[in-house]
Amino acid sequence: MTPMQTLSRLAALAVMLCLSSGANAAPPDEAGIDAGIRRDLAEARREIRTDLARARAELDADNLVLGDGHGFTARRSTPRDAALPRAEITPAGDFLIAGAPVAIDADQRRQLLAYRSEILAVAHAGIDIGEASALAAIDAVDRGVWRMVLGAFTGSLERRVERTVRTTVEPAALQLCDRLPAVMAAQHQLAADLPAFGPYASLQPADITACRRDVRRQVAAR
User: Fold this and answer.
1) Segment holding 105, helix H or strand E
2) What is the pTM of this model?
3) Residue 65: beta bridge partners?
4) At 109, is the pLDDT very low, low, confident or very high (cuts 50, 70, 90)?
């Protein structure tokens, strides 16, 4: 069960409890239900930490695929982008285009490794944001299990979780936007020193400007 499925299950349980408790019904076995919900929450926390630890390890071990979510561009893909062959930076600093290594010297390898590290640092920070927001949402439920039940019809739980996630996610996501100028500078330097990299240096100043706007818009839409 995924963390989101667990949260959905908890919300469904809250609604079910409210629907099943009539005016003359006996109070539910609070201790038993509370223990069950907390077990689900603990399982969700474990799954989040395990899944994201695996994601971090895969990022570090796998080739960095340029343009595969790591281009940091807000513009739409163009036919030119689609026509570009697959490009990768390996953990050893090799630069592959369509699976074939491009001839590089020691300085170019150093730059490729530095660029890879910069991108992975941003990607790791993004995973950290996701983990923190997911755990914050679970903690918001955990601190108010019975308020969740009482608030099932009013939406108070949903608002509480949204507020918690918003205050956790927005500042951290904006900090990611602040790291993009360094990524763009690294792209441009690599493109200058390694012409084969040039077509993959897609980040533009407009993308950096759009980053903060898009973060605020997406958070506001929650």
Assistant:
1) none
2) 0.70
3) 88
4) very high
